[in-house]
Amino acid sequence: AQTVTQSQPEMSVQEAETVTLSCTYDTSESDYYLFWYKQPPSRQMILVIRQEAYKQQNATENRFSVNFQKAAKSFSLKISDSQLGDAAMYFCAYRSAEYGNKLVFGAGTILRVKS
Amino acid sequence: KAGVTQTPRYLIKTRGQQVTLSCSPISGHRSVSWYQQTPGQGLQFLFEYFSETQRNKGNFPGRFSGRQFSNSRSEMNVSTLELGDSALYLCASSLGPVIDTQYFGPGTRLTVL
Lengths: 115, 113
Description:
heterodimer; A: 115 residues; mainly beta; 4-stranded antiparallel beta sheet; B: 113 residues; 7-stranded mixed beta sheet; 11 strands; globular
């Protein structure tokens, strides 16, 4: 079974600075997808970024980028120029390419942004 | 395009009762998945439906069931509620069951007293 580990329960960053959230996963599959979701206090889960395992190039969405290391099974999220609105719980998630839409989530990292 | 909607948003029930939660996916989306979120267990997959068929099921007791209608709307039912069923229940939709990204609804907060 696949597992996702987020080893940082909580992180803090100063506004306008950069922060990196860590995620590692365990799988025997070669084809899969990885996601970062953000959950603000409203509890609405919002997709931040997605990475296909077959792509070597790291995904980027504006201020958000990932460092995907397939051999190390690592998938970290970098947030540049942090804003107050980035404060939320961030979840790393794994999805098999074979077994439908089941997402396996990590425990989450609370990100606090200081002004 | 309207997002995923879930009703009701909040629900209070007592032990032993049953409850039905509803999820309307984004227009055109045919796949619906359900997740339970609790402080202790985190986010856990319940089940996935596509074209009215359950494709995948998580490790939950038979008290948890679901269905999907021809218009892709989905319901999940929990019978004989237990205190531990108190959770945020999230629904997510996607175009189909393969490759596609899931988009989440705002959730239904269930409290069991």
